[in-house]
Design brief:
- By secondary structure, the protein is of the alpha+beta class.
- The chain has a single domain, classed as 3-Layer(aba) Sandwich (Beta-lactamase).
- 34% of the residues lie in helices and 14% in strands.
- It has nine helices and eight strands.
- The strands form two sheets. The protein has a six-stranded antiparallel sheet with strand order 1-3-2-8-7-6, with helices on both faces.
- The longest helix has 23 residues.
- The chain is globular.
- It starts with 45 loop residues before the first strand and ends in a 23-residue tail after the last helix.
């Protein structure tokens, strides 16, 4: 899963309107979340919708809450999924919004690569040009293969000023860029990631159609070993566009994995977004986080498109067991600072 993929694709030619990229994770360090397990918690997901869909919204909120609750584990009695999971869902056609701790900040790992690409596209627009061959090649590697070296190159190429300019244009006010080069330690929220996905799905004043199509194309060509997460349960006849992030965090005081998944799903004029961020996942870490995300995404996808007969499956136990989560990049030591929490 985290094995580094060769960069031989860097020399391929691209369709004139499309760009491609890929992303692996940046090893990062997350502050420990509260460890006391809440046997009974008042936290619950919430959904609102247009009047014709309120019954479905209430059912979906209960299903999301149940999916989160199912992730308690006897293997780690101190782990509380209600403290370490955050969720956002948006379906404009039904006026539906679901949230659970959607303003809570979480380290991004490779999920930030979708933002790096969007900032690169906006930079090219502002300079009245299309992407260069080098930018296209690095973007392909960064998104489709989750290549860290490509992400670092583009992060430095775009620069913090232009990255922040994109966040300002997209109104992603709660995203906090890392300022010392460790892009995997950027702080993101489900709310802001939803804004990014909605910006890619719909016409607007930030990105042109060509730019939006480019990023969606790349997110639809993630290699199969990385196409897990929020896609689970989505209809096969929908186009899917995802970016995942997963990072082993060398913090001896907490479980070492942050695992995130963001995605949008489109069929004709119908589309929706799902964001699930997790941290402090119990051992074995990566596979546990993936299973958590897919448990939540499954109930969301099945509720939004209940009649779909052919859907993308969850990762099997055998697939999760075969993961080889070996990072290919070690970040420099970070300054000690707490991870802030927002209210969902």
């Amino acid at each position: 899963m985290l094995a580094r993929h060769a960069r031989q694709r860097a020399g391929r030619s691209w369709p004139p309107t499309v760009l491609v990229a890929s992303a692996l994770i940046a090893a990062a360090t997350v502050a420990a979340a509260p460890s006391a397990r809440a046997q009974v918690t008042a936290d619950r997901a919430r959904c609102s919708a247009a009047s014709a869909h309120q019954t479905m919204a209430h059912r979906l909120a209960r299903s999301i809450t149940a999916a989160i609750r199912s992730r308690f584990t006897s293997a780690d009695p101190g782990y509380d999924p209600f403290e370490n999971v955050s969720v956002a869902v948006s379906d404009r056609s039904r006026g539906l919004t679901c949230w659970y701790h959607s303003a809570t900040q979480n380290y991004s790992a490779s999920a930030v690569k979708a933002t790096i690409l969007a900032a690169l596209l906006l930079m090219a627009q502002d300079e009245h040009r299309w992407l260069t061959s080098w930018e296209r090649n690095e973007a392909w590697l960064m998104i489709t293969q989750s290549d860290n070296a490509a992400a670092t190159a583009l992060w430095n190429h775009v620069g913090l000023t232009r990255l922040q300019h994109f966040l300002n244009r997209a109104r992603m006010k709660h995203t906090q860029l890392n300022t010392w080069g460790a892009w995997g330690l950027t702080l993101i929220t489900p709310h802001d990631e939803t804004l990014l996905l909605k910006l890619l799905m719909s016409p607007g004043k930030v990105l042109t159609r060509r730019s939006r199509d480019c990023e969606l194309y790349l997110m639809n060509h993630v290699i199969s070993s990385q196409a897990w997460g929020v896609r689970a349960g989505s209809p096969r006849y929908f186009s899917w566009h995802i970016k995942n992030g997963w990072a082993p965090l060398p913090d001896p005081a907490s479980s070492p994995w942050v695992v995130n998944s963001i995605g949008c799903f489109v069929h004709k004029r119908f589309g929706y977004t799902i964001v699930v961020l997790t941290r402090d996942n119990p051992a074995p870490g990566l596979s546990y986080g993936i299973a958590t995300i897919e448990s939540i995404a499954w109930v969301i996808n099945r509720a939004l498109v209940p009649r779909a007969k052919e859907v993308w499956p969850k990762s099997s136990a055998a697939q999760l067991a075969r993961l080889r989560p070996v990072p290919d990049e070690v970040l420099p030591a970070r300054p000690r600072s707490p991870l802030t929490h927002g209210a969902g």
